[in-house]
Amino acid sequence: MRITYGPWGESLEELTSAARAAEEAGAELIWVPELHRSATVTAAAVASATTRAGVGTAIALAFTRSPMITALEALDLDELTGGRFVLGLGSGARRLNENWHNARWDKPLAQLRETVEVIRTIVAASHTGQPLEYEGEWQRLSVRGFRRPYQPVRTEIPIYLAAVGPQLTRMAARIADGWISHELCSPAYLREHVLPNLAGRRDGFDVVVSGCCSIDRDPALARERASGVLAFYASVATYKDFFAFHGLADEHARMVEAFRAGRKAEVPGHMVDPLVLTGTPDQVAERIAAYEGFADTIKLTPAVYGNSPAQIRENQARLITLIRELTA
After folding, report:
1. CB-side neighbour CA atoms (13 Å) of 72
2. Count of C-beta atoms within a 10 Å radius of residue 121
3. For 126-165, where are the alpha helices, taking DSSP H only?
4. pLDDT over 90 at 266, yes or no
5. DSSP string covering 34-86
6. Around 114, how many Cα atoms within 13 Å sit in the side-chain half-sphere?
7. Where does the chain cross the membrane (predicted)?
8. Most exposed among 126, 159, 296, 327, judged by the fewest C-beta atoms under 10 Å?
9. Radius of gyration of the chain (CA)
10. What is the pLDDT of residues 138-166, one digit of tens each?
11. Helices 12-25 & 39-49, crossing angle to 10 degrees?
12. Mean pLDDT estimate for the chain
């Protein structure tokens, strides 16, 4: 199982320093998200700070850029990394697309499939001068007389898709080079819910599970500092089935209700335990080992929500030290 990492930083300088430290510790790929920063700009910063580890977006929003811009950014990042780039895409939620980005979000499966097809068309042939054509229900491309005057490092850049629901997970197995889990994904959920929907995956397909970590010598403090992650994600009503799978439907419903009412929701400890990797370094190492045989790659990240920069910094340092021990 490959060990990879999603760094945190209060500044881009700190984030890229953490990426470099994780690479030196043995992380094989550095992932960057898209929420408070642009995924592609952050990926470019990480690319310049690293020399061996892959650089991937986990995830870039698929519908808030045109497929042409996404493809050109992917080609630029692949050049900047010398062929180390992985394009991770996700549909995002309707509210995020429509209210934050004024982007269309209607039939996300078909829209995402066509987006991937257009990106691959551009990556494969934009340097040849031949017409770039695509006609779908959601995406249309008609480019003539265009030739990107740079030889690409690769004409096929790996595209991974993030998915929670079964339909999108099955589509990822059919059309993508890898699947990226939600930030919360227990071994049981991966084994019983995800892998059956990835049964038809292509050769070389990469199953990437996310492991959000909170490490402290005091397990109770580690659990407490992980509660903000649960509070953040459990406020989203569309994750109902995910929490129900873990026997947490009632807790999830109460947290959604509190969020809608503008109240702060209390996170019970039993809600944290199955979904966030918490405890001492040895305990977290054991939790990571539970994914062996089910995931090809694990993406480790420090618990961020609800914690101060100093607390996140301490947790990140412990996590990078643990990566060094796991990869030694």
Report:
1. 10
2. 19
3. none
4. no
5. SSSS-HHHHHHHHHHH-SSSEEEES-EESSSS-HHHHHHHHHHHHHHHTS-EE
6. 16
7. none
8. 327
9. 20
10. 999 999 999 999 999 999 999 999 999 89
11. 50
12. 95
